[in-house]
Design brief:
alpha+beta; Arc Repressor Mutant, subunit A; three-stranded antiparallel β-sheet; six-stranded antiparallel β-sheet; Beta-Lactamase; 2 domains; 10 helices
Length: 251
């Protein structure tokens, strides 16, 4: 269990967004459902550490310069965003389907970039949303290429939730599916997260050869099933382009 004071400090920092770049103490306290005095103490402490500062004109608080220092410590994610956009756009234009990039966080994937198909009905997850790794194409593409010891730790005591009647809920069956994905170079999700939706996904590697993300093409199964192999080939080719942009060099 985390420290409540740390949790509240993080909540304060996450309240600052492009939409609400500044907060007054009273408004922020109401927004977070915290006491005004507690909110003021949190802001004062964060101000001392330069995580926030106070606008001398309005008296309201905003993110401080120390946040920029922290941002510079995560170049991999910034590099990934820069590396994926042009190849993703080309793949979306080639396939006419929705293209997504996700990263693994525990036993879930987080979608960090997405380009919708021109004819999408908004059936897919928004950027920043999560999905279970065991029933998503991107999740299985990452899991399939993890080091064995890391995969074993994730699979141990993992209760595989059934999202549909097609979801793999048995660990042995999931291992078999991941072995097949590793053999052919791409993973599939056939109705496993949402009935009627199919996706193919390939791993993205960085300069250290680590799998840092996965790229997928997703769309209605009735449209994608007849051309699954062609879509998978394009997805793998595009994932390889992104990997090279991240500094990966195949042996």
């Amino acid at each position: 269990m985390g420290l409540q004071s740390v949790t509240n400090a993080v909540r304060v920092l996450k309240a600052f967004t492009a939409v609400t770049p500044e907060w007054g103490v009273s408004d922020l306290a109401r927004h977070l459902d915290l006491g005004k005095s507690s909110t003021h103490r949190l802001l004062a402490t964060l101000n001392e550490e330069r995580m926030v500062d106070q606008n001398p004109t309005t008296g309201r608080y905003r993110l401080g310069l120390a946040m920029f220092d922290l941002a510079s410590a995560v170049p991999r994610q910034l590099d990934l965003h820069e590396a994926v956009l042009a190849p993703m756009s080309a793949l979306r234009n080639q396939t006419g389907e929705t293209v997504q990039v996700a990263v693994l966080d525990g036993r879930e994937v987080v979608y960090i970039e997405r380009l919708d198909a021109p004819t999408t009905l908004r059936m897919f997850l928004e950027i920043g949303r999560r999905n279970s790794a065991h029933c998503s194409g991107t999740g299985k593409a990452i899991l399939a290429f993890l080091p064995k010891d890391q995969l074993d730790r994730l699979l141990k005591d993992w209760t595989l939730e059934a999202k549909t009647k097609f979801t793999i809920t048995n660990t042995s069956m999931l291992r078999k599916d991941l072995n097949e994905a590793r053999r052919r170079g791409y993973a599939t999700n056939r109705h496993e997260a949402e009935v009627g939706v199919l996706s193919v996904a390939a791993p993205v590697r960085d300069r250290s050869n680590a799998v840092v993300a996965a790229l997928s093409v997703a769309g209605p199964a009735e449209r994608m099933s007849p051309v699954e192999r062609q879509l998978a080939q394009l997805t793998m080719q595009t994932a390889a382009v992104i990997s090279r942009r991240l500094g990966y060099h195949a042996n």
